[in-house]
Structure formats: C-alpha cells, structure tokens
Amino acid sequence: xxxxxxxxxxxxxxxxxxxxxxQNPLQEEEVEEDKYRLISSIYEQQLEEAVSNPRIIDEEILxxxxxxxLNDTDYNNLLRIVEAEASGExxxxxxxxxxxxxxxxxxxxxxxxxxxxxxxxxxxxTQFAPTRDGRFYSVRVTEETVRxxxxxxxxxxxxxxxxxxxxxxxxxxxxxxxxxxxxxxxxSYGGHDFYR
Length: 196
What we know:
- It contains ten helices and seven strands.
- It has helices at 12-23, 28-52, 59-62, 72-86, 90-106, 114-118, 129-133, 135-138, 143-153, 173-182, and strands spanning 2-5, 8-11, 121-122, 125-126, 164-167, 185-189, 192-195.
- A three-stranded antiparallel beta sheet has the order 5-7-6, with helices on both faces. The chain has a two-stranded antiparallel sheet with strand order 1-2. A two-stranded antiparallel sheet has the order 3-4.
C-alpha cells in the first residue's frame, strides 16, 4: 500500500519510520540517521520508477531529412574533395569545405552538380587544386569526413554562405590578394579563409 503526498510517493515502511522518529525519544544522532535513510529510500524509489517507466518517442521528431539528395558519384566526389582539401582540419574544417561545394551547387554562378563543381575549370585552371595535383584520387576518406559531409547534406551550414576558400599558407600572395580584394571574407578556420 502506498500513499501519495504531493508529488512524493511514500511506502508503508517509510510511514512507519516517520512514526518511530516522532514517537520515540531517540537521541538526536539516531533521528538524523533515520531521516537520512528515509530520504535515501524515497529518492531510490522515485529514481527506480522514473527509469522503469516506458518512454514514448515521436519518430517524426527524430527523423532527419536530407537537404541534398546526391547520387553515388556526387556523394563520393564530395567525400574525396573534402578529404583532399581539409585533411587534418578537424570535422568543422571539413564541414566548411563541404558547405562551399554545396553552396556552389545552389548558386547560379556555378554548375548544378557536385561532380561538375568539383571538376570545374576556368581558363585552364581547376577550381580545386586536389583535382589537378592528384590528391583527389589518392585520399583515403576518414569517418570524420563522412560525418562532416553528412552534416552538410542534412543542411548544416556553418560557412555563412561561403562560395570560396583559400589555403592562406599555400597560396601565392597574388591569389590571396585577389580573394581579399574581390570577395567578402566570412570566416577563417584552420589553414583556410572562407569568402562569398
């Protein structure tokens, strides 16, 4: 038999302990010890009930929807270019590179698919150096890169709409100067500056 007092459920045993505490002239230490045991018992009971109650989860809330529905070729090319451009940058740096590629896909200034964006060239120069120097073809895609790319595909954009990035330490002074003169800097992360 249980009795509900407010929001606290107290068993018969606890009520008996309370009666003993207040009816028997126990020494102060024993009373404090009994109070502690009673409170611990109530807490343990409430915790057990809270943990054992069934949970109802709305699947619609948990279901994430992809913002980009990429075919296998586009997905693999996105993984490879992100790994080649941002290897060693951490997941956030990789997410930023994926954001730039996908932002280009969404922009009227660039081609419509990831593969076309990755391999785009202008005046004989490729947009992404790894497609020219071979890194794109030799990278081993890490789990961190997969996570970053998947975050971007599901719509996470931390780039502020960036369409360009440059590796400041690797690019020529003229190239970095062009970015600084012609574009608006959005952020810096790791070895890259991001622009729109």
